[in-house]
């Protein structure tokens, strides 16, 4: 081993050095800024989680699995997973190996940022030593891995369908600069290392390449320009990085610990929201997933574009995108990074200024309190169920058959649960309604609150404080009744395909219980897209601006997915899905409660 | 080819009347009817406004005019192909036909009231449709109609003027039908209070306004301007409905023993496939598209294909009959080369 | 002048040609569906907030068209979405209400 230059410096490292210092400074500044944007409580929580061994270990593992290996992406599409993990993991290994080399051979240079990157220019090592042979082999191996990834990336640009993506985003001008410089980095590294391989050593890639080049480029004058070029593209990539989608690389490393610390979006643009926006890699998986993208005009209203517009500060588009969304949560379910598209939108909505604020303080609930008294179980059917009376009738019929001592608290009239206000971003107003409903329920003397509407169920479990009252979804509750032998079923011959309502499935994570119930009452089939991948019926209250006619296309898309199962009929567990599907469905649509009611005696 | 064959699709009043007239003009009309009886929806009705003529009398009278006309019941048109000067038709029973002209008289479908879920048709015990009520007038057998109702409510515009139900158009006959049925119910149950919930009362025909005046003056039928939005069921099985009295500006509730939904008229669901066979086109309202809606309402855009009755839009019985006669004459002129 | 205790009071009739439609016009721009209301009252009869407050989307639209104040009713709305579900003309009533609440902001 020998160092080729006593000074350990050459001007060609400058572009890299400038880029590196710039990007490190930028990120450091950004981290500090975001930390200050967090509320004091959140900041404490976050910093504490970093030193708590359990979360710290989880952070490290999550960063390794998601940022480097892209485990989630592998599950989605193997080609896509391989492409990303080969580039990310390969690059990481090259940097790591570079540092190991420096530490082994010239530990005194370890403080120089550029030394591990340009090690082969500055240090001549012979691959005949064991250390050299192993290290150089690994270096070439990972470089080859990256180059394969880059080749796939180039192919993906041209033909995204191979990677299971029908639609992908259009990169902005700066994104293109970042993209092309990223593509150029590794071929140039190969070139640079190949030119120096006969001096500094190499392995199975670089040595043969060196031999080929030396056949017609006899002198070493080509060496320096290629190292310059390599350094320049690295520099360019790092300088543009903060302004391109590649910012997701450092941002995701921040997002993961913040999520593990249990932070929530509290400001539409600052703090955790900012990290989420920056973490979006702009891959566009959410475009195909979005139920609205069945209409071409809505394609630019997916989460990836929301993030882009928030970065650009385009207020008009941010508002449009935020208000149109159905909040079905599918983008979040498929997102590789875990950007919370729906919550990000609700945060934008909540920042809006209104001249009029709802006021429910004068609402007299004494009559409702009276109506709610007298049962152990309180059944709250919710607003929407009043428009699908078959559900309310079936639920009460089943409860009657099982001999449950219950009261239907909003049989004649009731208040809204508050979820529609919450999703519209009118959080204080929603809390006003929540307090009123809490008052009614707590004064009723019941110990169980039964809900048949998942929209209500979600807010009751998340935002209500009802000490001593168990909040239960009807699917869970009916399963219990069957288990206790209070409900006798005779299985019907009809085969149903179960549609996961967004609020119950992705919203509350309840997938199995409705299926278990349905499986005992009738035959059951699965649609191609189900569970986390279920397609919104299009009727969601989440959207503020989608009009009735536009929703039809979404409903039909969702129905097509259900028809593909070849079931006789469609089952669902949400009054809004029921009403929406019934409008256009060619097959009968029924609620779980109706099916259970007709199968029980 | 027998130059006198004419295919008539649909054996309702339009098809029957056109067949009779064509037969008299010397043609050989062939009626193809998918149900097991002639007379279509009218055959299920009890009395017809404005003269309160018995529907069954009308149908049997019309049937008398069909002596000598070929009628295929429980039969559909399987395929139709245009030939150089006519059509080659295959029926679902295997019969092949060559005919010179085709008259589509496929009529309408009654809106399926269970699709307006909030009204609880098929869910609650005492909710019926206008057609169910006529059936009950004829047979007296329907467990949903109570023996001595003290309150009866009619809801207008069920599946009409309603984007959510997939039909933004007015069905035009239901207002008058509701008033007719309200009077009939009042005659049966003089003690009962009868309520009509309407959006607009569209009483455009001869003597219709008289019915309205009679219903108000002689029968004391109550009229509330407001669309019913919710229906629930009481513990004792009675129906509770909610509406807004838009003229008074207040929310109103009504507990009633019987709720009658005035289901609207949609184009027959088979019409679009029939239209596709002869390349006739469907209009934006879902009904068949006439050459124009003023002067050539019986004519399609294709030679030799004619329309009569409710397949081009909602119609009353007299309008349908008049149109059937006009269609017969149009076909006669077309086949005589008088066009 | 001697006050006889009666006299010609100002007519309570709304002068349609003098009505201030500025709010209504702003609403039209944000939610054009408002024009298609046929005042059937479905929204009002189904309204969750109605029994407590007299909230009525039909009245809100009509009052706006007559240049009257509607802020009291809007404050009772719970945005539950039933009116949007039942509207036979497919008007996005929730968006209509939210838009109006914002227009009031601009008025300040």
Greatest interface and its participating residue counts: A-C, 34 and 33 residues
Overall mean confidence score, pLDDT of chain B: 94
Cα shape of chain B: elongated
Widest sheet of chain B: strand order?
5-2-1-9-20
Share in β-strands of chain B? 25-35%
Shape of chain C: globular
Number of helices of chain C: 7
Question: If you had to describe this structure to a student in words, what would you say it looks like?
Answer:
The complex is a heterotrimer of chains A (601), B (339) and C (108). Chain A has 601 residues and is mainly alpha-helical. Chain A has helices at 14-37, 40-51, 53-68, 71-76, 78-105, 119-122, 130-158, 173-195, 197-200, 206-216, 223-240, 248-260, 272-279, 285-289, 303-312, 315-324, 330-334, 341-350, 366-372, 389-401, 419-423, 427-442, 454-463, 474-483, 512-521, 548-563, 575-584, 592-599, and strands at residues 2-3, 123-124, 377-380, 406-408, 448-451, 470-473, 495-498, 523-525, 569-572, 589-591. A four-stranded parallel beta sheet of chain A has the order 4-3-5-6, with helices on both faces. Chain A starts with a strand and ends with a helix. With 339 residues, chain B is of the alpha/beta class. Helices cover 25% and strands 27% of the residues of chain B. Chain B contains seven helices and 20 strands. In chain B, helix 1 packs parallel to helix 7 and helix 4 packs parallel to helix 5 (208-217). Chain B starts with a strand and ends with a helix. Helix content of chain C is 47%, strand content 0%. Chain C has helices spanning 22-30, 42-46, 50-53, 57-65, 71-74, 82-86, 93-107. In chain C, helix 1 (22-30) crosses helix 7. The A-C interface holds A 323, 352-360, 363-364, 383-384, 386-387, 413-416, 418, 420-421, 424, 426, 433, 541, 544-549, 579 and C 33, 46, 48-49, 51-53, 71, 74-82, 85-86, 90, 92, 94-95, 98, 100-108.
């Amino acid at each position: 081993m020998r160092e080729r230059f006593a000074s350990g410096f050459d001007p060609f490292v400058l572009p890299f050095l400038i880029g590196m210092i710039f990007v490190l400074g930028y990120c450091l500044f950004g981290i500090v800024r975001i930390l200050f944007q967090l509320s004091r409580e959140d900041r404490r929580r976050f910093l504490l989680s970093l030193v708590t061994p359990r979360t710290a270990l989880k952070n490290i593992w999550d960063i390794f699995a998601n940022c480097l290996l892209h485990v989630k992406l592998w599950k989605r599409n193997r080609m896509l997973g391989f492409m990303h993990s080969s580039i990310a993991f390969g690059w990481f290994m090259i940097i790591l190996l570079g540092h190991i080399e420096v530490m082994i051979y010239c530990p005194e240079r370890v403080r120089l940022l550029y030394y591990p990157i340009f090690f082969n220019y500055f240090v001549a090592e012979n691959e005949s030593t064991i250390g050299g042979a192993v290290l150089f082999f690994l270096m070439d191996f990972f470089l080859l891995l990256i180059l394969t990834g880059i080749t796939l990336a180039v192919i993906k640009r041209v033909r995204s369908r191979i990677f299971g993506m029908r639609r992908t985003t259009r990169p902005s001008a700066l994104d293109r600069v970042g993209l092309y410089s990223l593509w150029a980095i590794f071929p140039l590294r190969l070139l640079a290392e190949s030119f120096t391989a006969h001096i500094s050593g190499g392995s199975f890639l670089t040595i043969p390449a060196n031999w080929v080049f030396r056949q017609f480029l006899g002198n070493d004058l080509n060496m320096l320009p290629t190292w310059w070029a390599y350094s320049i593209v690295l520099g360019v990539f790092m300088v543009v990085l903060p302004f391109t989608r590649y910012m997701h690389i450092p941002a995701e490393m921040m997002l993961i610990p913040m999520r593990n610390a249990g932070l929530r979006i509290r400001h539409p643009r600052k703090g955790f929201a900012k990290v989420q926006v920056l973490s979006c890699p702009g891959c566009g998986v959410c475009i195909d997933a979005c139920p609205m993208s069945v209409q071409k005009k809505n394609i630019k209203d997916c989460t990836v574009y929301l993030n882009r517009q928030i970065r650009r500060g385009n207020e008009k588009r941010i508002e449009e995108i935020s208000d149109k969304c159905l909040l079905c949560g599918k983008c979040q379910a498929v997102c590789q990074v875990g950007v919370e598209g729906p919550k990000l939108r609700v945060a934008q909505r909540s920042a809006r200024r209104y001249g009029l604020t709802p006021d429910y303080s004068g609402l007299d609930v004494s009559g409702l309190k009276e109506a709610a008294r007298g049962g152990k179980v309180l059944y709250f059917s919710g607003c929407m169920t009043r428009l699908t009376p078959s559900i309310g009738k079936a639920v009460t019929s089943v409860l009657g058959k099982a001999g449950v001592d219950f009261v239907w608290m909003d049989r004649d009239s009731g208040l809204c649960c508050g979820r529609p206000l919450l999703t519209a971003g009118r959080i204080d107003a929603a809390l006003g309604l929540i307090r009123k409903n809490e008052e009614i329920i707590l004064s009723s003397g019941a110990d169980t609150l039964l809900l048949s509407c998942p929209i209500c169920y979600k807010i009751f479990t998340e935002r209500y404080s009802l000490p001593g009252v168990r909040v239960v979804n009807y699917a869970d509750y009916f399963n219990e009744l069957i288990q206790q032998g209070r409900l006798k079923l005779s299985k019907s011959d009809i085969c149903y395909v179960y549609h996961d309502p967004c609020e119950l499935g992705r919203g509350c994570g309840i997938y199995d219980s409705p299926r278990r119930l349905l499986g005992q009452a009738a035959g059951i089939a699965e649609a191609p897209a189900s569970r986390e991948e279920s397609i919104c019926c299009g009727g969601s209250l989440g959207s503020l601006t989608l009009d009735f006619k536009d929703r039809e296309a979404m409903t039909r898309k969702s129905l097509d997915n259900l028809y593909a199962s070849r079931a006789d009929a469609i089952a669902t567990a949400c009054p809004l899905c029921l009403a929406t599907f019934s409008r256009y469905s060619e097959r009968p649509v029924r609620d779980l409660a109706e099916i259970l009611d007709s199968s029980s005696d | 080819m027998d130059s006198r064959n004419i295919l008539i699709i649909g054996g309702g009043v339009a098809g029957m009347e056109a067949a009779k007239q064509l037969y008299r003009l010397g043609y050989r009309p062939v009626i193809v009817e998918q149900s097991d009886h002639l007379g279509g929806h009218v055959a299920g009705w009890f009395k017809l406004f404005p003269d309160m003529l018995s529907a069954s009398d009308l149908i049997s009278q019309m049937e008398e005019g069909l002596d000598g006309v070929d009628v295929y019941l429980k039969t559909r048109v399987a395929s139709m192909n245009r030939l150089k000067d006519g059509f080659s038709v295959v029926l679902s029973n295997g019969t092949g036909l060559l005919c010179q002209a085709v008259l589509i008289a496929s009529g309408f479908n009654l809106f399926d009231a269970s699709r307006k879920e909030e009204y609880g048709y098929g869910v609650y015990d005492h909710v019926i449709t206008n057609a169910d009520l006529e059936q009950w007038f004829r047979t007296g057998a329907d467990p949903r109609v109570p023996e001595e109702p003290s309150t009866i409510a009619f809801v207008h515009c069920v599946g009409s003027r309603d984007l959510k139900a997939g039909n933004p158009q007015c069905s035009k006959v239901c207002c008058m039908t509701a008033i007719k049925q309200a009077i009939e119910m009042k005659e049966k149950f003089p003690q009962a209070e009868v309520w009509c919930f309407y959006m607009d009362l569209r009483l455009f025909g001869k003597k219709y306004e008289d019915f309205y005046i009679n219903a108000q003056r002689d029968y004391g039928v109550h009229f509330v301007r407001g669309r019913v939005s919710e229906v629930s069921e009481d513990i004792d099985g009675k129906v509770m409905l909610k509406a807004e009295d838009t003229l008074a500006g207040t929310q109103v509730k009504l507990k009633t023993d019987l709720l009658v939904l005035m289901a609207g008229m949609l184009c027959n669901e088979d019409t679009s496939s029939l239209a596709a066979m002869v390349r006739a086109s469907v209009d934006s309202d879902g009904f068949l598209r006439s050459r124009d809606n003023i002067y050539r309402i019986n004519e399609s855009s294709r030679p030799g294909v004619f329309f009569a009755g409710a397949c081009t839009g909602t119609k009353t019985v007299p309008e349908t009959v008049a149109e059937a006669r006009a269609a017969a004459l149009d076909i006669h002129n077309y086949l005589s080369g008088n066009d | 002048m001697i006050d006889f205790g009666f006299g010609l009071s100002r007519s309570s009739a709304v002068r349609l040609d003098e009505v201030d439609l500025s709010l209504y016009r702003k609403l039209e721009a944000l939610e054009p569906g408002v024009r298609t209301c046929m005042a059937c009252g479905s929204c009002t009869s189904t309204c969750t907030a109605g029994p407590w407050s007299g909230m009525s989307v039909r009245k809100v639209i009509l009052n706006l068209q007559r240049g009257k104040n509607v802020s009291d009713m809007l404050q009772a709305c719970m945005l539950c979405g039933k009116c949007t579900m039942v509207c036979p003309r497919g008007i996005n009533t929730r968006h209509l209400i939210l838009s109006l609440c914002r227009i009031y902001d601009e008025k300040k």
